[in-house]
Automatic annotation (TrEMBL):
Protein name: Uncharacterized protein
InterPro entries per record: DUF4551 (IPR027878)
Source organism of the structure: Paramuricea clavata (Red gorgonian)
PANTHER family: RGD1561648
């Protein structure tokens, strides 16, 4: 969004209207996560990540049979996945704008990345959003294991990791949540070498994406400072 705006200052003027209420509304829209009501008789999986289940049981979780899902459920899942992709693109763009705001000298320092992440953190749907967010990452990782990623996949992965890195760096609360619930995914499933071999060397985003992979793995798997045991 806003790509048609010729000057960055025009962006800032638009977003500053009504005391940045437009920005707040856009952020909340980018992390809204409606609960889907399923109509099929598919047995729900336990509230545990697939990676954690492998560690506990030594075997992969049985995949749900696609035939057990109604066409309504499949359509809802596809729409939900598409919604998350658009939300990620929106939130990524908003974060970029916050970083660009420092280019314009102003006494009003409201529009900054810390303020934006606090809005994300305070949302009542943020945990459901993060779950859908990580599921998107894992879908791309699964495709990367067997195929070259398309340009759309590469762009989405870059945005996902960029947004996730910002959240991890700016919110200790959300970082603890991500560390507690998704460490196994990033420690055992997100493999830099696999991702590297699936990205086109000619893609301009490849170097930045690979760096983001390393950065995010480190931030997710490293124990947050407040959770570390004090030295004896």
């Amino acid at each position: 969004m806003f790509r048609e705006t010729e000057l960055l200052s025009s962006r800032m003027t638009r977003l500053q209207s009504k005391k940045y209420s437009v920005v707040r509304d856009l952020i909340l829209a980018s992390i809204s996560c409606p609960e889907l009501s399923k109509t099929s008789s598919v047995i729900e999986t336990p509230d545990i990540s697939e990676a954690a289940e492998i560690l506990l049981t030594g075997r992969h979780r049985k995949k749900k049979n696609k035939k057990e899902k109604s066409s309504h459920d499949i359509e809802l899942e596809n729409l939900s996945s598409e919604l998350v992709r658009h939300q990620v693109a929106l939130l990524h763009e908003l974060f970029i704008i916050a970083y660009q705001a420092v280019w314009f000298p102003s006494d009003d320092k409201t529009l900054n990345i810390s303020w934006m992440v606090k809005i994300v953190e305070s949302s009542t749907t943020v945990h459901r959003y993060l779950q859908a967010f990580v599921e998107q990452v894992m879908e791309i990782i699964t495709r990367a294991e067997n195929n070259f990623l398309t340009s759309d996949d590469t762009t989405l992965l870059y945005r996902l990791l960029s947004v996730l890195k910002t959240i991890l760096q700016q919110s200790s609360k959300l970082r603890r949540h991500i560390h507690d619930f998704y460490t196994e995914e990033f420690r055992y499933y997100v493999k830099p070498q696999t991702i590297s071999s699936s990205l086109s060397p000619d893609c301009p985003l490849t170097p930045s994406t690979l760096k983001l992979v390393d950065d995010v793995i480190g931030l997710v798997t490293d124990t947050p400072l407040k959770n570390r045991r004090p030295p004896r």
